[in-house]
Amino acid sequence: MLLSIEPDDPVPIYQQIRDRIVEAIAGGRQPAGSGLPSTRQLAVDLGVNFHTVNKSYDLLRQEGLLRLSRKSGAVIQRDPGSGPPRPDWAEDWAARLRTLLAEAAAQGLPAADILRACEAAIAGFAFPRDNQREGQP
Amino acid sequence: MNTASLAGEVMVPFFGATLCIAPAITRPTVPFGVRVPAERARATIIRRERYAYYWRTAALGVGATITAVLLQGHGSWWLSRIILLLLVAADLGCYWLARNKITAVKRAEDWYAGRRQVIATDTSWRTDPPRFPVRWLIPALAVIAATVIVGVIRYPDLPARLAVGFAGSGPGSGPGNGQSHGTPKSVVSAFGIVVGQLYVTLLWTGLMVLVYRSRPDIEATDPAASTRRYRRFLAACTRAVLTLLALVNLSLLLAALRTWQVYRVSGFGSALPVLPFVVGLLIFATTAVRTGQGGFRLSGGRAGYGPPAGTDRDDDRFWIAGLIYLNRDDPAIMVGARFGVGWTFNVANPMAWLVIAGMVAVPVGLAAIFAAAGG
Q: What spatial distance separates the first Cα and last Cα of chain A, rounded to whole Å?
């Protein structure tokens, strides 16, 4: 998986690392069961503090996307083919999505453009076939 | 003429040529240690300064070599070392000149304005790491074993005083240097060279293992292809280093054979122990020219998948004079060198100092032991 961060971006680096890994899982580049570098290794490779990567991995662990163990290291736990998420997670995500879409509406982006942007993003995700059909209107 | 002065004289043209061609084997996006965006790598100022550097350092290298050849035989063995030091200092002056001019233009024209600066990595470097070519270490170890065997066989027949030069333990110090003051025969004085071989082998193998654990030089403009190139570069460089190690050990074996009076030579024959070392240096230099820094001269195969991640981050502030890496926020111990081919330490990392201290303490300790043993 290719991972890039922007050190001068206002978004904190730990958040950027977490976001890039979530995108890689959704895009099928990091499927469930695949490994990630250890926190120390990724910190060396990105030239950032070890605690920064630790924070990203901890976020992913709390979200149920990553399993951390001494024996097998950091392993992806869920991907688009892992079945439906927890109901409480879906509610929380819908609330965050509403805020994100509201930002676009508040800035004056037409509904059609917002929908197009959503479709373009979804087109880059690696849904399993039956899962994809369910999503069709 | 002795082996030490000969080794010193060989180093003058070698360093002269290496420093002269260094900009050609340095990645175009870090000319003279200055980070520049890929689109600016062919800027007029960079081309002009590169050519000026080639001419200046070529003239200095030729001048120093001629001086070293003319003065050989007229001075002590350390004369070639002084010429070498002066040459390196003068070449660094040329480097400094070029660097300052490029930095000035980069700042004045604000080359990084509006660019998305990123740090890119490929996690497959860790999840599918390259393997250290352990088999390539066999020749170096075989030469050490041969040295020990010959030494054990010869030891009972050695005279009471030996012509030993422990300074011959390192490649730079001239194998088998002929400081032929007699040292009383002892296991320490007779087998000093074996300790030298072991030290050089362990040091370089250890450093290369550390390099395998370090981060690869990945270009944000094409992360996937540059990772693949770096894998091939690291493999080629390690093989060249391990071959050089075997040849350095062979040089030390030849010096040992002379100490143990297996053969006697004089005049140009004293060049014999230096020969494998020179061949090893040439093999390493050829590899460096073929691969370039981080493997940028290797064909990267197909271009990387996905769009470029962005422009490599302007990290000049972490490089003192573009040569010494100092970044407190970076946990790396070793990083790719900025000028020429190789690696360097992150001097802000205490672990790096621990490694450097170990590298220095071992030979100093050994030299003390040998001095004590030699009376």
A: 32
State whether A1 and B116 contact (CB < 8 Å).
no
Averaged pLDDT, B189-198: 86
Residues of B in Cβ contact (< 8 Å) with A34: 127
Euclidean distance between CA atoms B226 and B321, whole angstroms: 25
Give the global pTM. Answer: 0.88
Q: Residue A27 is part of a domain; what is its CATH number?
A: 1.10.10.10
Tell me what the mean pLDDT of segment A53-68 comes to.
Answer: 96
Mean pLDDT of chain A: 91
Chains A, B: CB contacts within 8 A come to 79
Q: Write the residue in B116, B120, B215 that is nearest to A2 by C-beta.
A: B120
Please report residues of B whose CB lies closer than 8 A to that of A47. Answer: 119, 215, 327, 329-332
- Chain-chain contact of A42 with B116 (C-beta, under 8 angstroms): no
Clarify whether residues A122 and A101 are in a common domain.
Answer: yes
Nearest by CB to A41, from B117, B126, B306: name it. B126
Query: Quick check: B227 and B302 in contact, CB under 8 A?
Result: no
Tell me the nearest-neighbour CA distance from A87 into chain B, angstroms.
32
Token duo for residue B305: 């998948």
Q: What value does the mean pLDDT of chain B take?
A: 87
- How far apart CA A6 and CA B171 sit, in angstroms, is 43
Residue of B185 and B351 predicted with greater confidence: B351
Interface test with B, best of A45, A46, A54, A66 (most B CBs within 10 A): A45
pLDDT band, residue A87 (cuts 50/70/90): confident
Alpha-carbon gap, residue B90 to B58, rounded angstroms: 11
Which chain A residues are within 8 Å of B117, Cβ to Cβ? 6-8
- A5 with B216: Cβ contact below 8 A: no
Do A66 and A114 reside in the same domain of the chain? Answer: no
Domain boundaries, chain B: 1-111, 131-305
- Which pLDDT value is given to residue B279? 95
State the ipTM, two decimals.
Answer: 0.89
Query: B4: pLDDT confidence band, cut at 50, 70 and 90?
Result: low
Domain that holds residue A119: 87-131
By CB atoms closer than 10 A (0-12, 13-18, 19+), residue A79 is buried
Per DSSP, the three-state class of B220 is coil
Q: Which residues of A touch B124 (CB under 8 A)?
A: 1
For residue range B75-125, what is the model confidence (pLDDT) as tens digits?
Answer: 666 788 889 999 999 999 999 999 999 999 999 999 999 999 999 999 999
Claim to verify: residue A71 and residue A99 sit in the same structural domain: no
List all residues of chain A from 37 to 66 with a beta carbon under 8 Å from chain B: 37-38, 40-50
Verify whether the Cβ–Cβ distance A7 to B119 is below 8 Å.
yes
A28 and A71 in a common domain: yes
CA dihedral B320, B343, B227, B348 (to 10 degrees): -50
pLDDT of residue B29: 94
